[in-house]
Amino acid sequence: MAMVGREKCVVYGGNRTLGVRQCWDKAEPLCSWSCLSMPTSSCLFQELQNLASKHPNLVIVPLEVTEPASIKAAAASVGERLKDSGLNLLINNAGIGNNSSLDNVTQEDLAQMYATNTIGPLLLSQAFLPLLKKAAQGSPGSGLSCSKAAIINISSYAGSIQDVHVWEYGQVISYRCSKAALNMLTKCQSLGYREHGILCAAFHPGWVITDMGGTIEDKTRVTVDVSVRGMLKVMSSLSEKDTGTFLDWEGKVLPW
C-alpha cells in the first residue's frame, strides 16, 4: 500500500544526521503532519525551527536519544499534538560512528555507540508504541504498510554479519557491532509488533556522502538526495511480506 498523503510521521535525527532536512523536503508531500526531533545542541535545530514557522504541518521537538526522560517527554509532546489520530511512521535515523579498530576499541567506544545506535532506537520505539498501535487500530485492512503503522530503523550494511561490508576501508568495530545489534532489534520488533499491525524494517541508506561517511572516493557512494529519495520510494511500497527485512535505499534485500 502506498503512502497516500494522510500519514503522521516522526523522524529522529542527531547532530549530523542523514539529511534530516532533505528527508522532510521529500516526505512533506506524502504526510499530512510531520515531526522532526533532535537535540537542541544540533547545528540544524534553529534552522528547522525557522522552517517549521513557515509550515504548519511541521513540528520540531527537542530530543536527546541517550536520555530516557527526554525520549518520554518527546513522545508525550507528539501524543498531545496528535490527540486521537495516532502515529503512522517512526523513522529512527540517529547514528554516530568512529574509526575504532580491533587493536584500539575501548569499552567507552562501545558504550557510546550502543547508547545512540541501538539503545536509542529501542527506547524511542517503546515510547512511541502506544501511538503506533493507535494508528494501526484506526486503519482499515489487515495488511501491514507505512501508511498504517511502521518503525523504520536506519541501519547500515556495515552491520551485516554474513557480508562484512567495506572491511577494506575500515574496521569501525564499535559501529559495526552497534548496527548488527540494531538489525537484531529490528527483527525482534517485527516478530513482537506484527500482532499489533506494525511493520518493522531496517534500511541501509547507502554509503552516503556525509561528514560521518568520510571523504573516501568510491563509485558506489551516493548523495544524500539520492539516498533519501530512494528510501522514501521503497518505504511507500512496503507491505506485510517486507516486515522483518533488511533493505537498501533501492529496495534490495541485504544479508543479515
- Give me the CATH fold name: Rossmann fold
Extended strand count: 7
CATH superfamily caption: NAD(P)-binding Rossmann-like Domain
**Uncertain regions spanning at least 5 consecutive residues:** none
What does this structure look like?
With 256 residues, the chain is of the alpha/beta class. It has a single domain (7-248), classed as 3-Layer(aba) Sandwich (Rossmann fold), CATH 3.40.50.720. 37% of the residues lie in helices and 14% in strands. It contains 6 helices and 7 strands; from the N terminus they run βαβαβαβαβαβαβ. It has helices at 20-27, 45-52, 68-82, 107-137, 173-193, 224-235; strands at 7-12, 31-38, 58-62, 89-92, 150-154, 199-204, 246-248. Helix 3 (68-82) packs parallel to helix 4 (107-137). The longest helix is centred in the middle third of the chain and has 31 residues, at 107-137. The two termini are 25 Å apart. It comes from Anas platyrhynchos platyrhynchos. Belongs to the short-chain dehydrogenases/reductases (SDR) family. GO terms for molecular function: oxidoreductase activity. This is C-factor.
Describe the structure concisely.
This protein has 256 residues and is of the alpha/beta class. It is 37% helix and 14% strand.
Write a concise keyword list for the protein shown above.
C-factor, 256 residues, 14% strand, single chain, seven-stranded parallel sheet, 6 helices, NAD(P)-bd_dom_sf, alpha/beta, Fungal_SecMetab_SDRs, Rossmann fold, SDR_fam, globular, oxidoreductase activity
Show the helix and strand layout.
Blueprint: E1 7-12, H1 20-27, E2 31-38, H2 45-52, E3 58-62, H3 68-82, E4 89-92, H4 107-137, E5 150-154, H5 173-193, E6 199-204, H6 224-235, E7 246-248
Helix pairs in contact: 1-6, 3-4, 4-5
